[in-house]
Write a structure and sequence with these properties.
Blueprint: H1 2-6, H2 17-35, H3 44-56, H4 60-65, H5 67-89, H6 98-101, E1 107-118, E2 123-134, E3 137-140, E4 144-149, E5 162-165, H7 181-187, E6 190-196, E7 201-205, H8 211-230, H9 235-244, H10 252-260, H11 271-284, H12 292-312, H13 317-335, H14 342-356, H15 364-385, H16 392-419, E8 421-423, H17 426-449, H18 454-479, E9 485-487, H19 493-512, H20 515-538, E10 545-547, E11 550-553, E12 556-561, E13 574-575, E14 578-581, H21 589-593, E15 596-597, E16 600-603, H22 609-621, E17 626-628, H23 629-632
Parallel strand pairs: 4-6, 12-14, 13-15, 14-16, 16-17
Antiparallel strand pairs: 1-2, 1-5, 2-3, 2-4, 5-7, 8-9, 10-11, 11-12
Helix pairs in contact: 2-5, 2-14, 3-5, 8-9, 9-18, 10-18, 11-12, 11-13, 12-13, 13-14, 15-16, 16-19, 17-18, 19-20
Protein name: Competence protein ComEC
Domain DUF4131: 38-199
Transmembrane segments: 21-48, 68-88, 262-287, 299-320, 341-361, 367-385, 397-419, 425-448, 455-478, 484-508, 520-538
Amino acid sequence: MLFESSLSSLDTKGRMPFVRLVIPLMMGIIAQFYLDFSVYTFGLLPLITLLSLIFRWLPPARKYAWRHWLHVIVHVQLFFVGAIMLYCHDLRYHPLSYQKSYVTGDDILLRLEGPPEEKPRSISQTATVLGLSHEGSWKPATGKLLVYAEKQLKDSLQWGDDILVRATPSPIRNGPGGFDYRQYCAMQGISGQLFLRRGDSQLFRRNGPSWLEYGLYNGLHFCTETFQKYIGAPEAGMASALLVGFRQGLDKEIVQDYSNTGIIHVIAISGMHLALLYSSLLLLLSWLPANRAGNWAKALIVLLFLWGFTLLTGASASVLRAAVMFSGTTIGRFILVRQSNIFNTLAASAFLLLCYNPYLVMDVGFQLSYLAVMSILLFYTRIYASLKCRKKWLDHLWQMVALTLAAQILTTPVCLYLFHQFPTWFLPANLLAVPLSTVVIYLSILLLAISPFHWVAHAIGILVKWLIVAMDASVRFIGHWPGALIKGISCHIPSVLLIYAAIGCWVIYRQQELRSAREWAVYCCCGAMAAGILAVFLQPPPQDYRYNRYILHKGRKIVVIDSALGTCIPDKKFKVDYILLTRNPHTDVRRILAFYRFDTLVIGAGNAPRRIEQWKSECDDLTLRFISVPDQGAYVINF
């Protein structure tokens, strides 16, 4: 297998130049993101470059003696290059940024990107700023805005149109204590938002989407409409998510079940989908001759399908990583006719993507995608070799187990830091969902191909529907096993770094079997113990007290209900100030009243719409005060 042959070249440094190049580049991007160097700091780069040029004129003996210093100079150069790339992508420092020249009352010329997306009470689109008009004089400007408009304006705001807007942009705000949506938008180049009402805009020029955008949109529309026709809701939403990454038709409860079992990657377009497409294309094109013309034909067809699928699915970070990697492998195999080091290919893909968009380094999908591939390359072979299975079917099963365990090793620390939870039954969930989803993907492609033949298409659609039903039911069943999800795990950046240091020491010890590696492992364990002891003694005293889902803060009592309530009803109700319903608990308001007396019921945004409507109706019937976060926005409690 690919993973078994990759580790043999781990110690061949000369064959992995991009591994040494991408690390300082990435460190420079991260440093600029958090430290925000001024433009004067980048004046050091010409001086460092001058040092590297002086090095070229040294005598050969000096060059050899000081060769390590040259490596340091090159790494420092790449560090500053990474910082400068992020600085140039930051719209705050762009000389034509609309934020620098906009004055209240100016007209803004916008170009609408993409079709309008329907929200509960409005429509939204992304728009590019083309220019500003101040007292009749035009000046160029750049930037991106989120445009929200009344639903009645849907027909007048068409994809690709240039519109003249007289409305004041406002900064993007975050909900209290929630996801940093403002930072997320900034990494997409979006720096503000507009709210349009009737009369705030007028058509300036009708352009329409480009032929490529229009073709991709029609392709996506064809897939979703075909699935709706032959599979039916809600399973059609799952088929669309599995094949083309269109997740608007997915039920929130289903998404939560997949997240709780650690297999959310199944319904997110990732490298697995590109790997299936790549292997299928190679199999279908195996009849082409292995001469120069045949190899060029294979390469062009594979590249065309890979990047067409990448663009169709939205070009997420994980898909871009896989597309660049498979493109490099295809070019090396069929055009250059040479084998490439897979670690170098992985590093080269990261290098190219960061040059294209430095903000990708902060993208969770980008991080987890590369960590998963690195983890598989480093650990799959050793895990698989630890157990020999003579039965062929058992060996295939063990390969899946080894692959799943290997992918978890490097991704788990980051997942604990980001999500503070761990799905304990991820292994059986992966063993069930991954094969079923693979079959569903192939059958969905077949369904699209034979959609003109209605009788056959209906039969395939029924088969896909029941496979999806079986997959969802199995995932939901595993998600309700005892201890299926460990929540509230406290994991901070020092802990993550120490975990990776321990893993690195183990890899070095097993790969090179150096005696000093044992000492490094001991030092790492001692460091972890010291960090833990310091964390205990230096941690400030808590301002609130929590027991399971009960929170007491400055005299206010809050109960978080995220699962079904118990069967035994207490003799005396527990008095609290707030009840928070989140994560789709299987309960109703009358059942909650049997356990608690409360002042306000808060319905969180992470619940399914039908449950939210059910609870709202019950509260109205019982004349209870409630707050619906999806409808009313964030609810702030002033303690």
